[in-house]
Design goal:
Elements lengths: L2 H21 L1 H11 L1 H4 L7 H8 L9 E5 L7 H7 L5 E6 L2 H10 L5 E5 L5 H7 L5 E6 L10 H12 E11 L4 H6 L4 E7 L6 E7 L7
Parallel strand pairs: 1-2, 1-4, 2-3, 4-5
Antiparallel strand pairs: 5-7, 6-7
Helix pairs in contact: 1-2
Length: 213
């Protein structure tokens, strides 16, 4: 590729970055979506209605380690931190360095850790932060469009890392995510949020306790 061709390819990226700065967090989210649409799954962040309903079943008094896959620009991060115990920890995992850099620059809470990596490696990531399990895991990753094998690997690793009684919280634009969860979680509560762009399905997969088994 010639220097002229490289310059032409870089031009839209420069324009996109300028637009992102003007739009603030939503601009960063848009840029991340345009770069990796398969991994982001939405062109704008979730609504406050989705956030409230998604987090409602969490027993915050029993939550010390909360993990989020695909945090984007932190739409869920701040609500989670506002509910999380003072000695708790929020670990977010994303494969997009744009989002990770943005979160590290804008969230200074000592309970917050942003990790550039794959959700399939959640067990190693949680252990690296000094914990042997997570209490809750939240995901907005588009399971139905992830590369082959990635969705099942994430669902399996999530079930293993959760403590008994913990839950996998998933919000999606299609109902297919439930199929990935059902292979590991016997109890899955479901909901739907119309006041979101796009309207989305909500799932809470609960890991059985010894008494349940």
């Amino acid at each position: 590729m010639t220097g002229t061709e490289l310059a032409r390819e870089a031009l839209p990226r420069r324009i996109m970055r300028r637009i992102s700065r003007l739009l603030g967090p939503r601009g960063v989210f848009l840029e991340g979506f345009l770069e990796h649409p398969v991994m982001v799954g939405s062109i704008i962040p979730s609504s406050r209605f989705t956030i409230t309903k998604m987090l409602a079943p969490v027993k915050w008094g029993e939550c010390k380690v909360f993990v989020e896959y695909g945090p984007g620009v932190g739409t869920f991060c701040r609500p989670v931190l506002s509910r999380l115990a003072r000695d708790g920890q929020l670990i977010v995992i994303d494969t997009n360095p744009l989002f990770i850099d943005y979160l590290r620059a804008t969230i200074s809470d000592s309970r917050f850790s942003a990790v550039l990596g794959s959700a399939a490696d959640v067990e190693d990531i949680v252990r690296a932060h000094g914990h042997d399990h997570a209490d809750y895991v939240l995901s907005g990753l588009p399971f139905s469009t992830l590369p082959d094998g990635v969705g099942p690997a994430i669902a399996s690793a999530t079930h293993r890392v959760l403590r008994p009684g913990g839950a996998f919280l998933v919000y999606q634009f299609t109902a297919k995510a439930r199929d990935f969860m059902a292979k590991h979680f016997t109890r899955i509560d479901s909901g739907f949020e119309l006041l979101n762009v796009l309207p989305c399905f909500l799932y809470w997969g609960w890991k059985d306790t010894p008494a349940d088994e």
